[in-house]
UniProtKB/TrEMBL annotation:
GO terms for biological process: response to other organism. Gene3D superfamilies: Bulb-type lectin domain. This is Mannose-specific lectin. InterPro entries: Bulb-type_lectin_dom (IPR001480), Bulb-type_lectin_dom_sf (IPR036426). Residues 16-124 form the Bulb-type lectin domain.
Length: 157
């Protein structure tokens, strides 16, 4: 007797809203959370969408081809072209460690470890951008002191 077990996936993939040190987001791949999506587009532009509307980007379209996004172990988030040449980064290099990029439920994209960079695209529960206190707000130079999280981005599905 042969027993066949079929495991089928749901019509909608599980949401992935995080990247850990060493992970890569390839071309046309994305992170998402609810209605938010952070996508590494084919034109090498990393774009954050809210319900299909662009709210933030790296403005790197046309600066390469076959690009990918890497969350590095030095806390730097970098877009590399096909020759592995960096074309954009968060300029958040720290000492090597375990870092995590998160697209949060407030639409903000954060690098966790110690907060030091943000897209400043958070949305409060009232829907007013920047209206609540549940977010990381870096100083003018992009440095946040005494914070345990770093806001990077989230994506929608």
């Amino acid at each position: 007797m042969i027993l066949i077990i079929s495991l089928t996936s749901s019509p909608c993939e599980a949401q992935k809203n995080t990247m850990f040190s060493g992970e890569i987001l390839g071309m046309q791949s994305s992170l998402w959370y609810g209605n938010f999506r952070l996508i590494m587009q084919a034109d090498c532009n990393l774009v954050l969408f809210d319900r299909g509307r662009e709210v933030w980007s790296t403005n790197t379209e046309g600066k390469g081809s076959f690009c990918h996004l890497k969350m590095q172990s030095d806390a730097n988030l970098v877009i590399y072209n096909y020759n592995d040449k960096p074309i954009w980064s968060t300029k958040t290099s720290r000492r090597n460690g375990n870092y995590m990029l998160v697209l949060q439920k407030d639409r903000n994209v954060v690098i966790y470890g110690t907060a030091f960079w943000s897209t400043k695209t958070y949305v409060s529960v009232t829907g007013i951008t920047g209206a609540d206190d549940d977010h990381v707000e870096p100083e003018e130079a992009g440095v946040v002191a005494n914070v345990t999280e770093i806001v990077v981005a989230t994506g929608g599905h």
